[in-house]
Recover the amino acids of this structure.
């Protein structure tokens, strides 16, 4: 039986949200997607879902957002022991080495560069994300 | 102290020393002159003394002759000798200074002669003259003769006179000797003073010259070091120099210049960084909405491909084409801004290998042959900029080629300290009026719709070469193909400009 994967997308751009949604649908991944427009909202959602079945398995976070940016959000999430098992992926238009190095400090599972061209050829990190999702599904 | 003042002062000191030397020598010559005068005076005095003594002897013999022979001829000799001696004594009195020992001796001599004449000679002569007149007068003469001559009085006076003269002459000789000694001492003194003054002048001159040369050259060496440091890009250099000399003023002017350069270059660097950052941010921020447009068009195509009219599909293709063009332009801005920001790494680059790699990577076009010269040099240099230059020149040659049987030739020449690399094609060629324009960013010669070109390639080539003070040349005319050539240093250090 396929598991429903809880995904929290932290992204303020409507088009980028749609892109993620479409990609997940196209790949046939059974999921429950929650969307937060910035870090603060995302933290609130995380807080709410503590201990219940809605708790995200995976968070996709944009770096450039209003109020609380991606790095600040990553730092907050990583400071809570309870969220240690949640997989984190950065989703960004940035291709900067500096940004990647900064994000790597928070123990992320991948740094995915937008656009999410999964068809041909996928970036290694986007590909890893899908493998991760598939594996979670099978569990 | 100003250098001109130091030079003036030094010359003044040397001139002063030489003037003193000259003055001392002049005084010495005066002394010698006066000594010569003194010598001739002394000779005259001695000569006059001798004459006086000879005359006195004449007087004595005249007196005796007359007394013995009674011949008046002797009286004449006696008289003329007296007169001459008077004038000799007057002359001598003029030559001998007043109140000197010699003058006292002279006065004694005069007195003695006077005494000899008036007390001895005159009474004897008178008595002799009268002795023929009477016996009593003869007796009187004999008595007088006995009294004055026989008893030796006259002889005593004579001896005393001669003694005085001998003293007088000896005194004069003594005077002469002491003057001679004085002169000799003064001559040797002057000689040693002139010698030491001349020596001091020469040493002082040499020392001043050395000091000035050292002062100037020392500072010049410092300034050269500073100028070299500035040329190497280190503007934060200063010459500590608080003096008032012209060299110190120059040093301060150099310091000021270095400060200004430092300020301006810092400002320039900051502005360049800001511009790069700006280009970076702008291209990133514009990329996001472009990607959004592209996504939406793709979704429309994916989700509604069956219910869209053909016309709409064509419009959507146009939108996508423009998005690609805009993305390429943004990439061009980023590439252009990035030039010169990379770390400059030197490695061994085999040019033949580099060019072959490029020609193999470029999308093939039918009818175009690459002719790459074999055994092109291997240079220890930066690989990336050289690759960018060749890649842009070669891909341009291929992209714009219009012949069925075309070629692109890559070859080189050795040219002194540089290599000259050539990329030649037999394509459409470029009119001379565009030879400068083609190197400007976003400048293209073909309609963008017919050639998907951003117009960044040649601008990048130009910027890479400009950064290294190197030249690119183009030889081309419509219908005759093009030859692009650029210089690249054999030894890489030569090209590092900043």
């Amino acid at each position: 039986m396929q598991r429903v994967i809880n995904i929290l997308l932290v992204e303020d751009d409507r088009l980028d949200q749609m892109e993620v949604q479409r990609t997940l649908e196209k790949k046939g991944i059974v999921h429950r997607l929650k969307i937060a427009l910035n870090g603060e909202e995302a933290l609130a959602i995380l807080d709410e879902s503590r201990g219940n079945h809605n708790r995200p398995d995976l968070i996709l976070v944009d770096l450039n957002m209003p109020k609380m940016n991606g790095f600040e959000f990553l730092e907050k999430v990583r400071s809570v022991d309870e969220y240690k098992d949640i997989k984190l992926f950065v989703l960004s238009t940035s291709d900067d080495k500096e940004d990647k190095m900064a994000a790597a400090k928070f123990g992320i599972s991948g740094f995915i560069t937008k656009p999410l061209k999964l068809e041909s050829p996928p970036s290694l990190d986007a590909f890893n994300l899908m493998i991760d999702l598939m594996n979670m599904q099978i569990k | 102290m100003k250098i001109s003042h130091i030079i003036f002062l030094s010359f003044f000191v040397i001139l002063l020393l030489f003037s003193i030397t000259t003055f001392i020598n002049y005084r010495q010559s005066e002394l010698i002159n006066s000594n010569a005068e003194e010598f001739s005076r002394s000779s005259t005095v001695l000569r006059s003394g001798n004459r006086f003594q000879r005359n006195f002897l004449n007087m004595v013999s005249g007196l005796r002759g007359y007394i013995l022979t009674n011949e008046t001829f002797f009286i004449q000799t006696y008289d003329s000798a007296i007169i001459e001696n008077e004038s000799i004594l007057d002359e001598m009195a003029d030559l001998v200074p007043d109140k000197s020992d010699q003058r006292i001796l002279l006065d004694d001599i005069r007195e003695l002669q006077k005494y000899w004449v008036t007390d001895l000679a005159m009474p004897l002569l008178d008595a002799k003259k009268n002795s023929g007149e009477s016996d009593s007068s003869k007796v009187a003469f004999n008595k007088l003769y006995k009294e004055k001559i026989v008893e030796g009085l006259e002889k005593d006076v004579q001896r005393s006179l001669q003694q005085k003269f001998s003293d007088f002459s000896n005194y004069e000789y003594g005077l002469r000797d002491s003057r001679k000694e004085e002169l000799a001492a003064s001559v040797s003194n002057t000689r040693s003073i002139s010698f030491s003054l001349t020596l001091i002048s020469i040493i002082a001159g040499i020392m001043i010259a050395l000091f000035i040369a050292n002062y100037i050259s020392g500072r010049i060496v410092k300034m050269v070091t500073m100028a070299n440091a500035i040329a190497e890009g280190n503007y934060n250099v200063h010459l500590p120099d608080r003096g008032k000399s012209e060299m110190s003023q120059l040093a301060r002017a150099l310091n000021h210049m270095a400060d200004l350069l430092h300020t301006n270059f810092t400002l320039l660097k900051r502005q360049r960084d800001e511009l790069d950052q700006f280009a970076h941010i702008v291209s990133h921020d514009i990329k996001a909405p472009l990607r959004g447009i592209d996504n939406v068009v793709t979704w429309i195509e994916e989700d509604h491909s069956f219910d869209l009219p053909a016309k709409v599909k064509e419009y959507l293709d146009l939108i996508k084409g423009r998005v690609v063009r805009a993305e390429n332009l943004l990439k061009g801005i980023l590439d252009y801004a990035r030039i010169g920001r990379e770390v400059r790494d030197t490695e061994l680059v085999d040019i033949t290998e580099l060019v072959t790699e490029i020609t193999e990577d470029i999308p093939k076009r039918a009818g175009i042959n690459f002719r790459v010269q074999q055994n092109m040099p291997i240079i220890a240099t930066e690989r990336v900029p050289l690759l960018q230059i060749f890649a842009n020149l070669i891909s341009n040659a291929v992209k714009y080629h219009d012949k069925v049987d075309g070629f692109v030739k890559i070859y080189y020449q050795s040219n002194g300290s540089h290599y000259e690399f050539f990329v030649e094609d037999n394509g459409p060629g470029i009119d001379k009026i565009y030879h400068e324009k083609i190197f400007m960013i976003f400048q293209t010669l073909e309609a963008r719709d017919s050639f998907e070109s951003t117009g960044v390639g040649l601008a990048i080539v130009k910027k890479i070469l400009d950064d290294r003070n190197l030249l690119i040349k183009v030889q081309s005319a419509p219908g005759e193909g093009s030859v692009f050539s650029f210089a690249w240093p054999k030894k890489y250090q030569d090209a590092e400009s900043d």
